[in-house]
Predict the 3D structure of the following.
Amino acid sequence: MKRIVVLLAFILIAATSAFAQKFAYIDTEYILSNIPEYKTAQTDLDNLSKQWQEQVERKYSEIDKMYKDYQAEEILLTEEMKTKRREDIIKAEQAAKDFQKSKFGVDGELFKKRQELIKPIQDEIYKAVKEISSIGQYAIIFDKSSALTLIYTNPKYDKSDDVIKRLGYSPSQSK
């Protein structure tokens, strides 16, 4: 019986200390919207993406024209000419796919450019969150804007403005 009482006391102490932990949350979308460098980087990435997408669309439009021309002239072409045209179309399609992959693929230029421009900003945010967590002795800081779903958040625990201030900016936008 004493063991059960001791075990229950231990569980009660552990539960009490677990509830004493401090929690907070941030909204990275809001934080990023208050960082001019992020806005500039995002605009640059959007422009680059749009430019490359237009190039991809032009390449596929040219391929479509090649195919339609081939279909219109097919009856007039020799077998050798038909084979050559089909090979040209296939090569053009492969070149367009390779171009698209080199720009938008997993290790494409857009991904690398995003890493180059956005990652340093994200690292600074993480550093500021870590400092705020240490100063405020928070056990956990959630990100309201990520995949984590928070049904209700009390604004008193929102540390987004603290992160913006720690980064050297002044919060300007309303949430």
